[in-house]
Amino acid sequence: MDNRERILETALELFYARGYDAVGVQEIAEKSGVTKPTLYYYFKSKYGLLEELLRSRGEPFLEALHQACVYRGDLKDTLCAAARTVADFAWKEPKFSILFVAQYYSARESEVYQAVRPLVVRLQKEIEGVFDAAADDLGNMHGRQRQFSLGFIGLVILYLIMKHETEETEGIAVSEQEIEALVHQFMHGIYS
Amino acid sequence: MDNRERILETALELFYARGYDAVGVQEIAEKSGVTKPTLYYYFKSKYGLLEELLRSRGEPFLEALHQACVYRGDLKDTLCAAARTVADFAWKEPKFSILFVAQYYSARESEVYQAVRPLVVRLQKEIEGVFDAAADDLGNMHGRQRQFSLGFIGLVILYLIMKHETEETEGIAVSEQEIEALVHQFMHGIYS
DNA sequence: CTCATTGTATACCGAACGGTATAAACTGTC
DNA sequence: GACAGTTTATACCGTTCGGTATACAATGAG
Fold first, then answer.
1. Which of A81, A172, B9, B73 is the most exposed place for a label (fewest CB within 10 A)?
2. What is the mean predicted confidence (pLDDT) over A79-103?
3. How far apart are CA B129 and CA A125, in angstroms?
4. Angle, helices B3-18/B46-68, rounded to nearest 10 degrees
5. Residue B169 pLDDT exceeds 90
6. Can you tell me the distance from the alpha carbon of B165 to that of B159, in angstroms, rounded to the nearest whole number?
7. Does the structure show a pLDDT above 70 at B89?
8. What letter does residue B168 receive in the DSSP assignment?
């Protein structure tokens, strides 16, 4: 692993554990086994490092989610596929996932929230797209697609956090049945 | 309003908007119309200010929640009462509520999380107590009270955030029907 | 009037912050 | 072996951070 990647990995570790603001550039560099100028050679600023971290880790996820969110004629199936993608990613990248959630819920005017903004927007667009495409199934949603997608995202996130809190293991494993139960619960709430 | 209260109010405002770490003591003092030594006269440190903010605002809420969580023979009723209490508080203290959520999901080793820890623990204890008391209704929960309570708390929080995102208004108003629908959805998921 | 307590302001501290100027090693190419 | 581009280290910058020593008003009690 080269220095650039090592810096990103260290930053993820530290941001995950203590948060962006509480971690100094100095410490990231030291724990990566490099000096500050090396860090600034690869990333133009501390904020740039965060952006690149979110971008590089988030891109594969959003790519996979985009595939999963192609509407295949059934809302439940599509939502299951989306949830499946999220769960898989959370299993592979637990620390990044938790970091993402923390920043998702952070203060709106903070740097950290500004940094996740692009990911959040794309994530919401994907899910909203599913509800738009499912208009025939669901009937008139009275423009509540946004509300539904926010709720769905929140529910999936909540489930992952719960898992992360409860499980002894490091990763977050979610079975197919759990995914289906989650989506079923969500849809039942919507239909009623 | 005296200086002490004004400092707390200003801190809440700023922490809510930009987060604890990103806000300096200097700014809190200036925006409160006092100088730094005055702030340190009332609170022994920046962290102490945060603790006092959480304590003073959180205490009334936990007190009300404790009343609501007295088991009255029916799980649904009790959960509705608890959700009602949360919703009422979120209506009265929207900024504090959002700040609480942000810190609830923040990095586990961060100062902010350490500071909300006491509130989180008491909140969870209250809800867990409901599920414990409802063992007769629910049957054997196989020690999943903790998981249920985490899920319930998360769901209520999620609902509030969703409201806060969606509504144009500042406060978060939740009708009785919405509360009941939320609890019903949660319990349906549990029973199935 | 005196005196202790509460409350506020001026001015300052050392440390840590994010960030950089400069230059020396490396690396592969010709 | 000279050269260009990449990568790293030393040493430093100005600023802001959380926090404080000191002194001066205000206040009410005796």
1. B73
2. 92
3. 39
4. 90
5. no
6. 10
7. yes
8. S
Provide the pLDDT for residue A168.
54
Total residues found in chain A within this entry: 192
Pick out the nucleotide with least CA–C1' distance to B28: D18
Residue B39 CB in 7 A reach of strand C: no
- Token readout for B168 is 């144009």
Interface contact flag, B21 A17, Cβ < 8 Å: no
A43 at the B interface (CB within 8 A)? no
For B99-105, what is the mean pLDDT?
94
Report phi then psi at B21, rounded to 5. Answer: -65, -30
Which residues lie below 8 Å from residue B116, measured CB to CB, with a gap of 6+? B54, B100, B103, B104, B106
Maximum CA extent, chain B: 59
Nearest Cα of chain A lies from the Cα of B37 at a distance, in angstroms, of 24
Q: What does the alpha-carbon distance between residue B121 and residue B104 come to, in Å, rounded to a whole number?
A: 11
| Alpha-carbon torsion angle B57, B58, B63, B65, nearest 10 | 120
What pLDDT sits at residue B192?
56
pLDDT tens digits, B107-130: 999 999 999 999 999 999 999 999
Distance from CA of A66 to the nearest CA of B (A): 23
Which of A95-109, B84-98, B164-178 shows the lowest per-residue confidence on average (mean pLDDT)? B164-178
What is the Cα–Cα distance from B106 to B113, expressed in whole angstroms?
A: 6
Q: In angstroms, rounded to a whole number, what is the distance separating the alpha carbons of residues A31 and B3?
A: 43
Measured between CB atoms, does B24 come within 8 Å of chain A?
no
Contacts of B172 in chain A (CB under 8 A): none
Provide mean pLDDT across the span B123-150.
84
Where do the domains of chain A lie, and which CATH numbers do they carry? 1-44 (1.10.10.60), 54-188 (1.10.357)
Least confident window among A104-118, B60-74, B172-186: B172-186
Q: What is the mean pLDDT of chain A?
A: 88
Determine the 3-state secondary structure of B20 from DSSP. coil
Assess contact for B162 and A104: CB atoms under 8 A: no
